Amino acid sequence: MDVKTIILGFLSYGEMSGYDIKQAFSNSISFFYDASFGAIYPALRKLEEEGLVTKQEVIQSGKPNKILYQITAQGREAFQQEIQTPILPPVLRSDMLVKIFFGKSRTPEEQKAMLESCLHLQRQMLQESRESFQKLEQQFDEYQRFCWEYTIHHLETTISFLEQKMPSLVKEPAFSVSV
Predict the structure, then answer these.
(1) How would you class 139 by CB atoms within 10 Å of its CB: exposed for 0-12, middle for 13-18, buried for 19 or more?
(2) CA terminus-to-terminus distance, the chain
(3) What is the DSSP string of 38-70?
(4) Is 179 a residue whose pLDDT tops 70?
(5) Cβ contact 55:7 at 8 Å
(6) What are the CB-based long-range contacts (under 8 Å, 24+) for 103-106?
(7) Considering the entire predicted model, what is its pTM?
(8) Could you count the other beta carbons within 10 Å of the beta carbon of residue 85?
């Protein structure tokens, strides 16, 4: 699914600014799909050109005007059509896994530090996800709750797997006695 379709999904809940849309990405689906302002604003322009959203400028005193976007009937129809398409296999891009894949090119000390860093990052992400889930869970429907629980389960499983496999990956040099 592309950024434009996800934006239409967020706008189906109500009008939003570009900033609100970025917050929606960050606070709801960023574990499995994130988008920068550099992707959001061009997508909004394209959606407007296609007649799938409209925008309204809200005059604000003492601060810049706010642009609010609304989904059109045509946008709702396009969103419904897109979410009915077959599910594609996930595309996994992981900086962590790429670095582990090439771990043999590091010294044992570097390998250990890298794996500990991976474990630390996963634990940090789990803690942040649990905290966000607790703050936001009252707002979720059962499908959104499923996605958050999936995220937390995935992180827990990754941590467990790293803890299990780290000893076999970190090769301590054999102890030798000088004579």
Answers:
(1) exposed
(2) 65
(3) HHHHHHHHHHHHTTSEEEEEE--TTS--EEEEE
(4) no
(5) no
(6) 103/169
(7) 0.80
(8) 9
